Structure formats: C-alpha cells, structure tokens
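Troubleshooting entry. The earlier prediction with S-adenosyl-L-homocysteine gave an output that would not parse, so I re-checked the input for stray whitespace and re-submitted. Clean input:
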Amino acid sequence: MKRRAVKLVGVGALAIIACESPGEERQEAAYQKARQEMVSKQIKARGIRDERVLAAMAKVPRHEFVPAQRRRHAYLDSPLPIGHDQTISQPYMVAFMTEQLESKPGHRVLEIGTGSGYQAAVLALLVKEVYSIEIVKPLAERAVKDLKRLGYGNVTVKAGDGYRGWKEHAPFDAVIVTCAPDHVPEPLVEQLREGGRMIIPVGKEGTVQSLYVMTKKGGKMQQEAVVPVRFVPMTGEVGKRRE
Ligand code: SAH
C-alpha cells in the first residue's frame, strides 16, 4: 500500500510539471498570434510598408515590456501605463516613427525617453547600436533589466536628462525623441550627423503637439510636421525653462 501511495504522488508531480509547459507554450502562441494581428490590422492596414520595420514589430514581445497586470492588453491599439505616470506608446506610433527614421543596419541611433525599453528593442533589431536615455531612474533600471533578459545586447541605456544628448557616442545617424519638448533641443541637432534624420514631437504641455520629421542638411534642420500627436512632456532642463 505504502509503495503505491508514493508512486501516485510521483505521477501527480510529474503531471503538474508536464502540464505547466504546454500552458506556457499556448500562452506564447496566443501572444504571437495577437502580435501578427497587431501588425496586419493596426500597422500594415494604416500604411506602414517597410518590410524590416514590419518584421521587427512582429518579432519584439511587447507583452514583456508592460507590467504583468497589463499583459493581456499588450497588443491592443493603444498606449499603456508603465508606472511613474509614463506610458509605452501605441504600437502604430512606434512603427510609424521607426519607419520615418529610415534606419540602416550599420546605424547608431539615439533615443530620448527609454520608458519601457520597447521602442529601443524594435530599433535594436534594425540597427547596429542603440543609445537610450531615460530621466526616471527606476524606469531606466527596469528597462536595462528587461532588455538584458530578452537578449537585446546592442542597446545601452542611461538614467539622466536627454536634453543634452549623449556626447560621448555622437555623432548619431538618427535621433528619436519619445517625449515632447516645447522646442528642439540644440544639443540633439549638434549630435546628429550631416544627412541624419530626427523624429520628434514638439509642443507646449497640455496642447496637441506636432510630430516633426527632420533632416540635417548643411548643418541646418529641414523640417516637416507630419501628424498631430500627444506625447508625455519632456521634463528636466527643458521643463525648467518653461517655468
Ligand atoms: N519609448 C518609450 C515610451 C516612452 S514615454 C517606450 O517604448 O516605452 C516617454 C518617456 O520619456 C518617459 O518614460 C519619460 O520619463 C521620459 N522622459 C521625459 N523627459 C525626459 C528627459 N528630459 N530625458 C529623458 N527621458 C525623458
């Protein structure tokens, strides 16, 4: 009798272990399906055509960059809170801004506003090196951990004010800003190489901002406002200047 009981416990434990894994696999498959739908219904359907961008959006596990209680919403057509009053941008906006950067595999890109690290991860699949600055220290720390855990080894994150850029690694082939200042920070223009592109939302806090696509030509920025947007404000030095 005794022997039989032991055997049963053993079988039960095995069954639990065996069950856990298919459950996780099913969950991953469901996320992957949701991600494919996100790409076709939210991103392709609205006109994003760059195959490299579409492939990157189909690959990066967005659910790994949002807080656990928001995971089931990770592939919805909207921004999501990530704590500290900040948000991860809507997937379409990430795809649109990434496409506008016209990045090449050899590029080095500067991002201002790491947030969750999701945009940096998408860029990491498209370029050689990504440098990203986040002003909220716990967010920067969490992004570093998540990017490392998920294997994005070509992203370097630092906690600090992105207004001044990252001189040590300049010049950059492209600059992407995911928080909105009320003017274009001059250091970011200086740190962009000639011919490089910058994507940046600009506008006063609480108003609708414009997303600008800029190209550096002859040391000057040629700019075009492409779409009205609403990003979180850039804080730090630029915020103090506003007061
Ligand atoms: N790219 C992010 C979304 C970021 S939301 C993602 O993929 O998740 C904008 C981020 O900009 C916020 O995390 C905010 O804290 C940060 N931010 C605001 N002002 C900043 C500044 N001066 N320097 C660096 N980061 C800043």
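This one parsed fine. The radius of gyration is 21 Å.
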